[in-house]
């Protein structure tokens, strides 16, 4: 076994690279609208109210997500103080733990192959999708970690420590429910229920005992989730209880069918999910050779986990690419097992390295060319912020990875290439484009206006974007066009926030502030002037 793949050495290197990744992500951009800012605002209102039971957003109860992420953020703020960095560190840390947890998972699946544990961790850590979502303030990495904990429990029970194993499985299920609801069962139950399909050795003498333990784990997980849900439902009122316990699921089914995508929608995304390993010739050679030799228990389990999750999510018409993220650890385990039997001298050549580098180089070149075609994309205001040198910086990083190809272990080179791509993209392209998604200046103005006694309203659908960014202590009124005249009449000294696609005129009546925002502009103007501006625009 190469010294590089010693578990302790691998863990230290992964932690060091992860630290650089997180620091670059935090330094390159603020939280992005709409999702990240919304979830940060929910955590902020939980902190502000001191209410850990019922989440709130913009002063109203928030039933759309369970509280685990918000609890962990509040714990981080308690330890390190209230800041965006302390909050965004939570999913990033969950991603790191998920990578390191892959080592004991691999050891339980293939105890006779110790080097495989570190290889699996490197594959997961070096996947571009994992690197991106680890630095994103969302729930999916936390769900993936919960699923890994549940799987670790299943494997522990399989290897003979039944009580510890089933309790661990129940805890993993419970954490998954608290992280994102019953979706955790999609990642865990198929493996447990169809255990006879993947267990080739150490099969239970009586399957009845296996399913009895599984039932106990499910009940434990459900009890953990319901211990919060029932208490929150009792405290949040009848409407909140209805939405939390029933309406949320029903509404999501309706929303799913309202945003339908075809059954096959996920298939072309799978190579992107496992990039750069999906572009690695040794992986495909390993899969082909492994197929001929026959599959072991671990191979069957990882394929069952991936295939069942993919099938279930493909049958649901509402699809998002990040729903598949918790399947990535299983894919990484399968990829590691497939690659391990290939001799070192056949694990990679320059053609494979070039194939992996090609899409990264192409993205860098496109980024460097975008500023020159900005006139063809007038609606994409963010292109104005992009410098051609940002793309050149990415290209330079990927070319450097190609230059050091011969001096790096072939299984680790894709990790180096991916990280250099991310390390160069964050402070260049991401930082410049993210400028159009920053709202801290507007949020600070809202806070000042509210403290001065001025009512603030947002014209259109408001998703709590400014709550945490401005550390707001009062809600922002959500207004629609039909209610606007009455609101202006009641609050002539108020402030209106609205989005527009047309570049504002600083000399416009009542204009207080404007800035580029997403694909348009964000405008603050005095409420009293709105009717005047509307009248002028109508002529």
Question: How is the topology of this model organized?
Answer:
Layout lengths: L6 H22 L6 H15 L6 E2 L2 E2 L6 H13 L3 H26 L5 H11 L2 H7 L5 H19 L3 H19 L3 H10 L1 H4 L8 H30 L1 H21 L11 H4 L7 H13 L3 H19 L12 H13 L9 H20 L18 H16 L9 H22 L5 H12 L4 E4 L17 E3 L4 H7 L4 E6 L10 E7 L2 E7 L3 H9 L1
Parallel strand pairs: 3-4, 3-5
Antiparallel strand pairs: 1-2, 5-7, 6-7
Overall geometric form: globular
Percentage of residues assigned to helices: 55-70%
Biggest pleated sheet: 5 strands, mixed
Please trace the helix and strand order, writing H or E for each element: HHEEHHHHHHHHHHHHHHHHHHEEHEEEH
Q: What structural class should be given to the helix and strand makeup?
A: mainly alpha
How far the N terminus sits from the C terminus, by CA atoms, comes to 78 Å
Tell how many strands the DSSP assignment holds: 7
């Amino acid at each position: 076994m190469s010294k590089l793949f010693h578990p302790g050495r691998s863990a230290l290197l992964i932690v060091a690279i992860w630290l650089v990744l997180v620091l670059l992500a935090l330094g390159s951009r603020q939280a992005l609208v709409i999702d990240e800012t919304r979830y940060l605002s929910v955590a902020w209102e939980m902190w502000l109210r001191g209410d850990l039971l019922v989440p709130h957003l913009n002063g109203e109860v928030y039933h759309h997500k369970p509280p685990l992420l918000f609890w962990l953020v509040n714990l981080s703020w308690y330890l390190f103080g209230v800041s965006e960095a302390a909050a965004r560190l939570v999913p990033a840390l969950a991603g790191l733990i998920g990578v390191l947890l892959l080592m004991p998972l691999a050891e339980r699946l293939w105890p006779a192959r110790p080097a495989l544990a570190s290889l699996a961790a490197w594959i997961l850590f070096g996947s571009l999708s994992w690197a991106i979502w680890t630095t994103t303030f969302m729930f999916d990495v936390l769900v993936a970690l919960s699923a890994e904990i549940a799987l670790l429990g299943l494997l522990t029970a399989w290897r003979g420590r039944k009580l510890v194993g089933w309790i661990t499985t129940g805890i993993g299920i419970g954490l998954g429910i608290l992280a994102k609801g019953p979706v955790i069962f999609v990642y865990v139950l198929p493996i447990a229920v169809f255990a006879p399909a993947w267990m080739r050795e150490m099969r239970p003498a009586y399957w009845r005992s296996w399913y009895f333990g599984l039932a106990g784990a499910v009940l434990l997980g459900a009890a953990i989730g319901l211990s919060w849900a029932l208490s929150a439902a009792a405290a949040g009122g009848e409407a909140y209880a209805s939405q939390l316990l029933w309406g949320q699921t029903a509404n999501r089914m309706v929303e799913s069918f309202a945003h339908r995508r075809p059954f096959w929608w996920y298939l072309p995304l799978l190579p992107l999910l496992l990039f750069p390993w999906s572009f690695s010739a040794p992986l495909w050679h390993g899969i082909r050779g492994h197929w001929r030799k026959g599959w072991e228990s671990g191979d069957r389990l990882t394929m069952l986990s991936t295939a069942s999750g993919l099938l279930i999510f493909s049958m649901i018409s509402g699809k998002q690419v990040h729903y598949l993220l918790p399947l990535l650890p299983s894919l990484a385990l399968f990829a590691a097992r497939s690659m391990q039997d290939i001799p070192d001298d056949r694990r990679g050549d320059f053609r494979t390295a070039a194939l992996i580098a090609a899409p990264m180089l192409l993205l860098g070149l496109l980024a460097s060319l975008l500023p020159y075609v900005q006139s063809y994309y007038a609606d994409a205001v963010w292109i104005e912020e992009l410098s051609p040198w940002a793309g050149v910086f990415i290209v330079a990083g990927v070319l450097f990875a190609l230059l050091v190809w011969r001096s790096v272990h072939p299984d680790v080179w894709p990790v180096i290439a991916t990280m250099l791509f991310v390390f160069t993209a964050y402070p260049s392209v991401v930082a410049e484009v993210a400028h159009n998604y920053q709202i801290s200046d507007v949020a600070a103005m809202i806070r000042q206006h509210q403290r001065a006694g001025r009512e603030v309203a947002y014209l259109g659908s408001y998703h709590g974007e400014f709550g945490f960014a401005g550390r707001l202590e009062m809600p922002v009124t959500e207004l629609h066009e039909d209610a606007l005249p009455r609101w202006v009449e009641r609050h002539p000294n108020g402030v209106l926030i609205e989005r527009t696609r047309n570049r504002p005129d600083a000399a416009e009546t009542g204009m207080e502030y404007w800035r580029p925002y997403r694909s348009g502009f964000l405008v603050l103007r005095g409420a009293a002037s709105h009717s005047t501006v509307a009248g002028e625009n109508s002529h």
